[in-house]
Design a protein that fits this description.
This protein is of the alpha+beta class. Helix content is 57%, strand content 19%. The chain has a 3-stranded antiparallel beta sheet with strand order 1-2-3. A hairpin with a 4-residue loop joins β2 and β3. It is rod-shaped and about 65 Å long.
Length: 96
């Protein structure tokens, strides 16, 4: 492979990565805590869009509510990690 082909392949990969990043910023995942009493929604780029706490969750107490929010965030992040892996595999999987 000559340098010109390598540079073209690198430019193509950069274009695909940029498109993948844009796609990830548009996709959303939801993390659940406390059996659905807390829901964290974030993008595939880890931007938190919302944290919804059901009124009944307020009766859990501050410590339990804090744990529920943390659990929902971790669940959303794990789902975002999976989404990122899938999208990036689609980009890099086509490389020869």
């Amino acid at each position: 492979m000559d340098m010109e082909q390598l540079m073209a392949q690198a430019a193509d990969l950069q274009t695909k990565i940029s498109a993948a990043q844009n796609s990830l910023s548009q996709q959303q995942v939801r993390g659940i805590g406390a059996n659905g009493n807390v829901v964290v929604t974030m993008t595939g780029k880890y931007d938190v869009l919302s944290v919804v706490v059901q009124p009944s969750a307020l009766d859990m107490g501050a410590n339990a509510l804090s744990i529920a929010v943390t659990d929902a965030y971790k669940d959303a992040k794990a789902k975002a990690d999976t989404l990122i892996q899938k999208v990036m595999n689609e980009v890099t999987g086509s490389m020869d």
